[in-house]
Amino acid sequence: MTAATNIAQLQAQINTQYATLSKRLQQVASYVLENNQSLAFDTIATIATQANVPPSTLIRFAKAFEFSGFNEIKKLFRQDLIEETTSYTDRARLYKENNTTSLEKPLPILQEFARVNSEAMHQLATQASEQQLTLAVNILSNAENIYILGLRRSYSTAAYLTYALRHVGRKTFLLDGLGGMFDEQASMIGTNDVLLSISFSPYAKETQVLTESVSQKGAKQIIITDSKMSPLAAWSDVCFVVNEGKVDAFRSQSASLCLVQSLVVALAFQ
Asked: Which of 51-55, 83-87, 207-211 comes out lowest in average pLDDT?
């Protein structure tokens, strides 16, 4: 087990490991699962008091889940709270309230995004396997129709992929749910088709529902997400884990765009 990188992963790990934890650690586990707001902003002393355990138990809990300390767990919850705030202005305000370093001027912001994107692209290039990529291209090549699903911040990647696949002559449809028509759009997917879904934590509920329903039809599925523990991964024929560059609560899409562009160009050569 490796340390979780988001709340969904941590919650899944806690649920899986709960029965094996000591009574004290189970108290902490229950508190962690039920008190997102407190974990984001309360001190460790306050959390220990509210969970009715000594502060040392919080440290033991963190180490049981591969964190060096409980502050790393607090950071996950604070990050999630910021990401759930849809207003970028509010995100910037929360960032300034919880960080001593300043990213208020354009040049440092650009430099930081360039740095984290470079790291994300290098990780993508070294971790994506040739077998995965080849299988994904073959699935796309053999599909009668290709359906693309990406909501919220994943929408721009999904829209680009739809555009690019049409430029290589593939029958491609973007599932956008316009007019609340997700179910009707998904009902068109057949056994000879493929659904390519893109979703990152916090995972869009509509994407989770549609990937599960499509799995019952026998259609192939390619998933682009941020963890093997993603709720989408279970339904995939091919699952790409992409860790995007992130400057605090502001996540990039460079690595995802690089991946889908590579798939399309490989399809064109094939």
From this structure: 83-87
Q: What is the pLDDT of residue 41?
A: 75
Q: Which pLDDT band holds residue 249 (cuts at 50, 70, 90)?
A: low
Q: Is the dihedral of CA 127, 132, 137, 140 positive or negative?
A: negative
CA atoms within 13 A on the CB side of 260: 26
Helix, strand, coil % (nearest 5) of the chain? Answer: 60, 10, 30
**Region of residue 70 (phi > 0: left; psi between -120 and 50: alpha; otherwise: beta):** alpha
CB contact set of 92 (below 8 Å; sequence gap of 6+): none
Q: Which residues contact 63 (CB under 8 A, 6 or more apart)?
A: none
DSSP annotation string for 178-197: TTS-HHHHHTT--TT-EEEE
3-state DSSP assignment of residue 1: coil
Predicted model pTM: 0.69
Residue 112 counted as domain residue: no
Identify the domain containing residue 157 by its residue range: 122-269
For position 225, which CATH number holds?
A: 3.40.50.10490
Give the chain's radius of gyration (CA, Å): 21
Percent pLDDT > 90 in the chain is 44
